[in-house]
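Researcher: We're reviewing a set of sequences before deciding which ones to prioritize for further study. For each one, I'd like a predicted 3D structure that I can look through quickly. This is Stage II sporulation protein Q. If possible, include the structure in token form so it fits the rest of the review sheet.
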Amino acid sequence: MREEEKKRSSQNSGTQRKKWIFPAVYISAAALLLTAVVWITSGDDEAQKPNETGTVVNENGDIVEVNNLLENFVWPVENPDEVKVVTGYWDSAASNEEQEAALVFYNNQYRPNKGIDIAMENGESFNVVASMAGVVSDIREDSLLGNVIEVKHAEGVVTQYQSVTDIQVEVGDQVEQGQVLASAGQSLLNEAAGTHLHFEVRVDGQAVNPLTAFDNPLSALVEMNTEATADEEADANEPAVEDPAAEEPATEDPAAEEPADEGQVDDETESDEETSDEPADETGDNEEESPDASIGQDNA
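Model: Here's the predicted structure for Stage II sporulation protein Q, in token form for your review sheet.
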């Protein structure tokens, strides 16, 4: 009896275990599936968050980090207190004196300066550093401009370093802010500046005043350029204001528009009738006498 009871109890316990296995498997699978869904969803949320770090593709096709949009532009020199701006940026909104000072004379022509020319107080050379982190996108030798280094940043922003020598970077290099790029040199375009650096900042190919970029983040520079572009488009779309005098019809002589005074007309008519009723001159001096009048006189 006892052996039979043991067998029955063991069979019952095995059956109960089998009943709990499948629910446990289902619960575990559901938990794993739920975990995977939560993980994928959280990954999508992270991907949808705005990324403040700009990236570009270098010459090898690799995506590299360029710079943080909150990084402020700095002067492209190691010590800004030791340099001065010898030729400023030509601004259409500046005064006539400031515009004249921002002209570069070359080949008997005056050209507007699209950047700023920086030189040492003592006229000596100095290290040229990156104004903001980025990727070197172009390096070219140019006798007119004095060699050029171009660094690409996010949001279509590019910085150019012209009139440089002893270049220490190559195309595709990722540079950090303040990293030495080259040394200041000379150029044929602006020989009067001596040893200097010509520094430009461009947004989508449009040159902007570098002085407005310093101490500001790249995001602010892009926003300022967008507002300036919108203002220019609004001015271009605004209809031209014509001369008010040209819109008004020409004023004619009032005397020509007003009819003659009725009394004056009657007087003139009466004077004409009185003149016609006067007898003809007996001496025959009236050469304009009508034929009918002559016949009446003869019959008389």
